[in-house]
Specification:
186 residues
């Protein structure tokens, strides 16, 4: 008689409640990449381990310092900032993964100057030339907003003309030469 094989990666009925089996599966997952505790717990539950076994395995991993949410958040911020993502997007992604808000804010504040990063991302995408028209400026602002930068960082990256206070030299199709030979016969 042929036995039906257990799907690969799923815990068998005997392993489901075993904290040692959950710990082994967690270490295998951590060998591939870093996880936050919430994400790793969800993966272990999806593999079929019971919640008590998952909690015991996570506690053991935290005690051994194999699993550290602070380290995960720090690495996540650095890696995603190097990809050109801003603090708003990184904050949202970390919150979706279940990282505590206080930890997220601490790591985002410790990263550095987000306005400088926004300027680098803008230069990498559009070059060093300033925007030539209002639609071009709006396109650059939307690009940085999509990448997750705050409005203040976007204004700083675009320079002083982005705040709207100083005159921005934009190309227009309007002839600005004024005819000074006006007949003033009243």
């Amino acid at each position: 008689m042929l036995r039906k094989r257990q799907p690969k990666g799923r815990a068998t009925s005997g392993e489901a409640g075993d904290p040692a089996a959950a710990l082994a599966a967690a270490v295998t997952l951590l060998a591939r990449r870093e996880f936050c505790s919430t994400e790793l717990g969800a993966k272990l539950c999806a593999k079929g381990f019971e919640p008590d076994a998952v909690r015991a395995a996570l506690a053991e991993l935290i005690e051994r310092r194999y699993l550290d949410d602070e380290r995960y958040a720090r690495l996540f911020v650095v890696i995603h900032a190097e990809r050109g993502q801003g603090p708003v997007r990184i904050r949202r992604d970390l919150a979706q993964l279940g990282v505590p808000a206080a930890l997220i804010e601490t790591q985002l504040e410790s990263y550095g100057d987000w306005a400088t990063l926004a300027r680098k991302v803008l230069t990498r995408r559009f070059g060093a030339a300033p925007p030539r028209s209002w639609p071009d400026k709006a396109r650059r602002m939307r690009f940085l907003q999509y990448r997750g930068f705050a409005t203040d960082d976007i204004r700083s990256a675009l320079g002083p003309e982005a705040s709207g206070g100083t005159g921005m030299e934009l190309e227009t199709d309007i002839d600005t030469d004024i005819d000074t030979d006006i007949d003033t016969d009243c």
